[in-house]
Each structure stands twice: as C-alpha cells, then as structure tokens.
C-alpha cells in the first residue's frame, strides 16, 4: 500500500511543480517577448530568457514524469484510456518544446538586428513576428487543445476509482471540458471567452485545480480503494 501512496505523493509534487515552473517561465519571458521593441531588448536580456527557457524545460520534464508514473496505473484500468492519455501528453510535450525553441532563436535574431541596425529591418521584423506567432498563436494554442484532451480521461479515471475526492475529479473534468470547448469551437468562431497574456481565461480554473490536486496528493496521497489495493500488490 505504501508504494502506491508514495507514488501519489510524487505525482502531487510533479503536478504542483509543473504549475510553479510554468508560472516562473511565464513571468520571466512574457514581458521581454511582448515588449514593443522586443528585437532590441531580447539579446541584452538573453540571460533572463535562458533562465526562463530552463524553467520551461523543467516543466516539460515534469509533464513527462507525470505521464510515466500515471501510465501503468491507468493501464490497470483500461489500455485505451492509458494509451490516449499517454499520446495526448507526449504531443503536449512536443508543442511545449516547439514553444521553448522560439525564444532561443529570437536571441540570435535580436543580436543580428542590433548589429545591422535599421537596415533590412522589415526582414528581421517579419522573422520576429513569425517566431512569436509560432510560439503564442500556434504552439501554445495547440497545447491548450491537447492538454484538456489528456486531462479528460485522467479525471474520468480518478472519479471512477475514487483515488482522490470526487469534488477534485469533477472540478478537473469540467474545467478541462470548458477549455476544450473554448479552444476548439468558440475561438474558431470569434466567440472565445478571452485570453490573458496569450493564455485562455478558461485555463484558470483548470490551473487552480491542478495546483489543488498537487497539494492534496502531496499531503494525502491516493485514497484507499479496491483498485488502489490491487495496484499496490501489482507493484510488489
């Protein structure tokens, strides 16, 4: 029983860590990348950007760690559920890596822009817009689509097995569904509920749920259940 309970606490630390590292990376990168004269400010702030990118890389490692730990647990319940969760999480991680590469490329672009000056400014501005758009409007947009797709089967599993309190699994499922509807349908027709710094407002209840879930698991671990007992013996 203790091995699975410890696994729940490790998962809690990873869920909480992913949110913390995402927030730190966002705070470090967003003001620089979205500055009016970003092409002249990115290179002088390359150390800050590199640190922000490092935090985002740790975030990716955390996502993959959660996926690795949850896959065998989900597989005991359903192969298709486990494969779906695994696939969506891996794709989410790939989109995060694409988003991470853009600020690093912008550092070089900014350095060249500063050296050249105003000559061929339109060339650098076009590349800058392309990289920023790739990060904010495509990579993170796709990320906001696949993250809830992975969350839905996870919270369904948690609700069915009662490994966490029901209110947490219901909250998480509904929050993920709200993000999915907002990103997949409403925004396509210009009816999205809005964004803050490029992040959908609908992601707020989902983010808060993952923070609360992480804290709960770190303190309590998984609740006892029949499946919980079977899983514990399967790891011995």
Outline:
The protein has helices at 2-33, 38-41, 46-77, 79-116, 121-161, 166-186, 203-220, 226-234, and strands spanning 195-196, 199-200. It has 236 residues and is an all-alpha fold.
Task: Describe the overall structure.
By secondary structure, the chain is mainly α. Helix content is 83%, strand content 2%. The chain is built from eight helices and two strands. The chain has a two-stranded antiparallel sheet with strand order 1-2. Helix 5 (121-161) runs antiparallel to helix 6 and helix 6 packs antiparallel against helix 7 (203-220).
SSE layout and pairing:
Elements: H1 2-33, H2 38-41, H3 46-77, H4 79-116, H5 121-161, H6 166-186, E1 195-196, E2 199-200, H7 203-220, H8 226-234
Antiparallel strand pairs: 1-2
Helix pairs in contact: 1-3, 1-7, 3-4, 4-5, 5-6, 6-7
Assign the structural class, choosing from mainly alpha, mainly beta, alpha/beta, alpha+beta, or little secondary structure: mainly alpha
List SSEs in N-to-C order.
HHHHHHEEHH
Distance between the termini: 10 Å
Describe the largest sheet: 2 strands, antiparallel
Mean pLDDT: 86
What is the number of E strands?
Answer: 2
Biggest sheet: strand arrangement = 1-2
Helix content: over 70%
Count of distinct structural domains: 1
Counting DSSP H or I runs of 4 or more residues, the number of helices is 8
Described by the principal axes of the CA atoms, the overall outline is elongated
The portion of residues forming beta strands comes to under 5%
- Are there runs of 5+ residues with pLDDT below 50, and where? 232-236
Gyration radius, to the nearest Å?
Answer: 20 Å
């Amino acid at each position: 029983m203790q091995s699975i309970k410890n696994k729940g606490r490790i998962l809690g630390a990873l869920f909480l860590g992913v949110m913390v590292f995402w927030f730190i990376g966002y705070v470090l990168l967003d003001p620089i990348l979205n500055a009016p004269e970003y092409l002249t400010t990115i290179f002088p702030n390359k150390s800050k950007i590199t640190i922000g990118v490092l935090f985002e890389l740790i975030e990716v490692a955390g996502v993959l760690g959660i996926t690795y730990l949850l896959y065998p647990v989900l597989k005991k319940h359903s192969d298709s559920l486990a494969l779906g969760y695994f696939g969506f999480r891996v794709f989410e991680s790939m989109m995060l890596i694409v988003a991470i590469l853009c600020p690093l490329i912008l550092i070089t672009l900014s350095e060249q822009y500063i050296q050249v000056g105003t000559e061929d400014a339109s060339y650098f501005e076009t590349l800058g817009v392309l990289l920023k758009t790739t990060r904010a409007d495509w990579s993170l947009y796709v990320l906001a689509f696949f993250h809830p797709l992975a969350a839905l089967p996870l919270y369904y599993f948690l609700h069915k097995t009662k490994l966490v309190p029901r209110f947490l699994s219901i909250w998480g499922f509904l929050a993920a569904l709200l993000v999915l509807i907002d990103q997949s349908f409403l925004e396509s027709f210009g009816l999205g509920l809005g964004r803050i710094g490029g992040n959908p407002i609908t992601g707020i209840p989902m983010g808060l749920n993952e923070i609360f879930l992480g804290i709960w698991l770190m303190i309590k671990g998984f609740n006892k259940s029949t499946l919980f007992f079977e899983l514990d013996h399967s790891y011995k």
